Fold each of these.
Amino acid sequence: MSMTLGLHTLALVLYAATAALLGWSLARSAQRAPLVAAGALAAGVAAHATALGSYWTAFREPPLVGLAPSLSTLALLIALGSFLLAAVGRSGPLGLVLVPVAALLGAIAQAAGLRPTGPELAYRGPWFILHVTLAFVGYAGLTIAFAAGLMYLLQFRQLKGKRFGAVFRFFPPLDTLDRIGVRALLTGLPALTAALLLGWAWSHRFGPAMHAGNPKVVWGVVTWLAFVASLLARAGNATHARRAALTTVIGFAVVVAAYVVLRAAEAAGAGFL
C-alpha cells in the first residue's frame, strides 16, 4: 500500500510540475518548456499507471469501485489523453486545462484514501471492467472536448479583439482546437453509449434492474445528452465551431454540477462514483 501511495503522490507532483511548466511557457514564451513539460507528463502518467497497478495487486480489485480509486482512474485517462495530444497531435498546450483537472481529481482521490470503499458488488469480472472503462473513456473524452472548447473561446475572443499576444502564440489554431473537440466527442459518445447499454443489459439479465432515478443512470443520461447537444451544435459547416465550443463548455459544467448534486444526495456508503 505504501508503494501505491508513494507512486500516486509522485504522479501528482509531476502533474503539478507539468502545469507549472506550461504556464511558464505561456507567460514567458519559453520555447523548451513544452518539451520538458511533455517529459514530466509522461513520467507522471507512468507513475500513476504503476500506482494503480500496485493498487490492483494489493487489493485484488481493479481501481474502478469507490470514490478514490474511480477518480484516480479517471484522472489517469485524462492525463494520458493530454500526453497523447502532446506527443501525436502536437497540441500540448491543452495540458494547461487537462493536467490541472487530472491533478485535482488525483488529489481528491488521495485525500479520500486510496483503498476499496465501495460496497460488495453483485457482479465482477471482465464485463464489469469493460463497462466502467468505457464509461470513463466517455467522461475523459468530454473533458478533452471541454478543454479544446474553452481554449477555442478564449482564443476567439483574443482574435476578435485583435490582441495577438501570448494566447495567440501559444494556443493551437482555432481549426485544430475545433478538430480535437469534435474527435473527442466522436470518441467519447460511442464509448459512453456502449457503457450504458452494457450496464443496462447486465442489470436487466441478472438484476436488480436499475430504476430511472438511480444516480448512475441519471448522471450517465445527462452526460450522454451533453455529448449529443455538443455534436448537434457543431453539425453543418465550420462556422458553427464557436457555437459547438460554447455548448461543450456549458455541457461539461452541467455534467459536473449534476455529479455534485447526485453525489451529495446519495445515501452514505452507496456505490455511486
Note: The chain has a mean pLDDT of 87.
Amino acid sequence: MKDSSGKKRFVVDLHNHTSRCNHAQGSIDEYIQKALESGIDIFGFSDHAPMDFDPRYRMGFDEMHAYENDVLQARERYKDRIEIRLGYEVDYLPGHIDERVLHADVDYLIGSVHFIDKWGFDNPEFIGKYEGADIDTIWQEYFDLVEAMAKERIFQIVGHLDLIKVFKFVPKTDVRLIVESAMDAIKAADMTIEINAAGYRKPIGEPYPSRELLQMAFARNIPITFGSDAHAPDQVGYRRSDLYEYARSAGYKEAVHFVKKERFSVPI
C-alpha cells in the first residue's frame, strides 16, 4: 500500500513474545508466518527479559543466548520475505534490572511497568488489591514509575503506556494531569511510545495508550511504533487496521523501528 505521495506504507510490529516466557505459546516460525499473512513488513520479538523477581513469567538468564540465537536464525531464514528485529521487554523494577539485559546486543529494549511495589497490578491473580484502594493514588504511583523509567534513559520504547487501566479501574482526576510529568520525561528522553493492541483483548477493550494520551504524545512530537503484544501466533496483527487508523486520526503519519538501537522512521 502507498500513501498519497506514492511512498510505500510500512506495517511495523515490534512487541511480540515467545514460549520462553512461560505464558505464551507457539513457535517463532508460527509467529512469523502469521506476520507474513498479516502483511507486516518489520516484525520484532521482544520477549520478557530475565530478572531475579517473578521468574515464572519470563525466561532465565541461561536462556538469553538461545533466545537471541533463535531470533537471529529466523531473521536469516526469512530475510527475503520480512525484516525481523530482536529485542527484549524489560520490567522497570528498581533494584532488579540486570546489566546483562541492558547490554544485550539487540535492536531495541521496551521498558514496561508491570509492578507497583512488587504488586503485579495487571495480573488477574492479584486483582483483589484494587478493592478499597484509592484508584487515583494507584494511577499516580504507576505514572511516577513511568516517569522514573524514562529518566533512566536506558530504553528505546515505552511499553503499553497506560497499562494501569487494564481492568477498567479509572481515576476520577483528569488522566492528563496524572500523566503530564511522565509524558514530559518521555519526550526529554527521546523515547518512543507504542500503540499496543493487547488492550483490545483485555477488560478495558481499547488499545494502549488512550486517545487522550496519544494526543498528548502527538502534541509533544513523541514518535510511535506498534505492537501486537502477541502471546500466541493468532494474536499477531490483531486489529492492525484499527491501530493504524487510530494513529492517523491523532495526526501521526510515520512509525519508527530500530536497528542496533538506532531509530528509523517509515510512512504508515
Note: The helical segments are 28-37, 64-77, 99-102, 135-152, 175-188, 211-219, 240-249.
Amino acid sequence: MFRRLLLTLMLLGATAPALALDVVATSTSMGALVRAVAGERADLTVLVGPDQDLHYLEAKPTMIRALRSADLVVAVGAELEIGWLPLAIQSAANRAIQPGQPGYFEAAAQVSLIDHGAPADRAQGDVHPLGNPHVNMDPVRMVAVARALAERFALLDAANAASYRRGAERFAEQVEQRLPRWRQQVAGAPGVVLYHRDANYLLEQLDVPFLGTIEPIPGVPPSGRDLRALRNALEGQRGIILFATFESPRAPQRLAEDLGWPFEAIPLDPPLDADGEGYLALIDRWVTAISATR
C-alpha cells in the first residue's frame, strides 16, 4: 500500500506543471514583451498602464506588494523610472530583485541608446544622461531586448530555457515580417513633430525626418513664445504633430492650427493585456499616422 501511494505521488510530481515565475513589469510594453517571451510561464503583474507617464509617478503600496514576492522585475531603465522604482524596490525588501541581481532586468541596458551624454543637470529639464530611455518605441531594439530577456528567464528557470528562446525568436520573426512594410508605408513622409523626445527611436529606425519637439526643454511645457518660435521655424513645410495620450493636447492643437497640419494623440505603450502582437499593433498605429501626410 505504501509503495503504491509513493508511486502515485511520484507520478503526480512528474506530470504537474512547473510553477510560473512571478514577474513584475513596470510598463505595458515591458509586459507585452514578457508575454511574448514567456507566455503562461510568467505570472505577470504590470505596474503602470499606458495612460500614465513613467517619468512622473510615486511608489505606491500596490507596487511594493507586487515587488515583494517577485522573482523578476522587468523595467525600461536608463533612469526612466528613477523617481519611483528604486524606492518601491527598496521598500519591498526583496533581495532577489535588487539591481545587480538576476531578478532585476532593464531593457535599455541591452541595447545602444540615442541622445546619450547629456549633462546630468535637472535644471535643464527631464534629462537622461545615460541616453534616451524610450527604447520600447523601436521594434528592432525590442527584438534584442526580447532575446536578452529570454536568456534571463533561462537563467532563472533553466528547465524551460528552450521555450523562452522560442518565444523571443517568434517575436523577432513577427518584427522582421512587418519591417519592410512599415518602411515602405512611411517612405516619403515629410516628418514629425513630437511633444517629447519619446518616439525618436521609431523615426530613426524608419528613416523619417524628426522636425522638433513642442516642449523646449524635456519635461517643461512650452510658452507662447516657444510655440511661436517653433511655428516660424516650420512655416511653409509639411508634417504631422504626434504626442502621447497623457500629454496635454492644447499646445499641439494650437501649433497644428497655426501651421495647417494634422495632429494626433497616440499611446506610447500598448493596452494593459497586450502581448507581442498587441505591441506590434501599437507600432502599426504610429506608422499609419506618420504615413498620413505622404
Note: The chain has ten helices and eight strands.
Amino acid sequence: MTLDILMPFYGRVDQFRSAVESVRAQTSADWRLVIVDDVYPDTSAGEWALGLDDPRISYLRNERNLGVSGNFNRCVSLIENDFAVIMGCDDVMRPGYVARIEQLRSRFPDADLLQPGVSVIDQNGDPALPLADRVKTVLRPRGPRPRVLGGEELAASLLRGNWCYFPSLCWRSSRLREFGFREDRRVVQDLTLIMQIVLSGGSLVLDDEVVFDYRRHAASVSSQGGVDGSKFAEEREVFYEAADRCDALGWHRAARVARRHVPSRLNALSELPAALRSGDSDGRRALLRHVLGGR
C-alpha cells in the first residue's frame, strides 16, 4: 500500500521545507517521497533535503529545466508503486493524509482518482477562501461522501468547473503513465489529464475529510495567465476537445456543458478590469473572445 509522493520543486525554499516536513509528519509511515528539483537557482533546498538523512526521501536535480509539465512527466517516470500524489512544493499535507488515502483505497479499490477534503491557505499559511475557491465549493457535487463519481455525470460536473485540487489528488499510477501530462499546456494540464481518464471510463472518489492544505497565492502557476488571456485559451482548447469526445460517446449533455463553459467565461470577465488597467490590448481581446464564447 506504499504511497508514492512526488514533489516537483521550483519555488520558495521556506515553503518547500514546510511541505517536506508535512510529509514527514504523517501518522502513517507507508510512503516514499521523491523531490525533483527543476534546476531552481537556489541550491539550499537540495542541500537541506539531502541533509535530512531520511531513507524514505530521495532528492534529484534535473540536468536542465524541463518546465512545469515536463517536470510533472519526469515525476511520473519515477513512480514505483500503484498510487501516487504529485504534491505542490508550497502545499501542506495534514498528518492524516496518507492514512485517509489508505482508507479510501481499501474502500474503493477500483477508483482511478481520489480527491480528499482540502482547505485553502494563503502565502503566509493562514486560512483563506478567495473567489476561485468559493466557486469551486459551489460547483462541487452535492450528496453523501465519500462517494464514487464517473461517466457523463462526472464529465459534465468537471467541465462545468474544475473543482479538483490537483496537488492533493491521489492517482492510479498506471493511468498517469498511460496518458501523461501534455507539455504544450502550462496551466490546465491537470484538467486535460483528468478528462482523459474520465472519458476512458475512469472513476473518482470525492471525500469530505480535510487532510490537505492547498496554498493559493499570486505566484502559483494556477493564478497566472489570467490577465493576458493565455490561461483561457488553454481552457477553451480543453473544453472543445472534450465536447467532441463527449459527443462521440453519446454524452451530449456533457458536450453542451463543455461548449458553453459558463463559469470559465465569467472568470475571464472578472479579469477584464485588470487587463484594461494594464493597457494590454492583446490580453483584452483574448479575454473578450473567451467571454463571448468564441472558438
Note: Strands lie at 3-9, 31-37, 57-61, 83-86, 92-93, 113-121, 147-150, 170-172, 203-215.
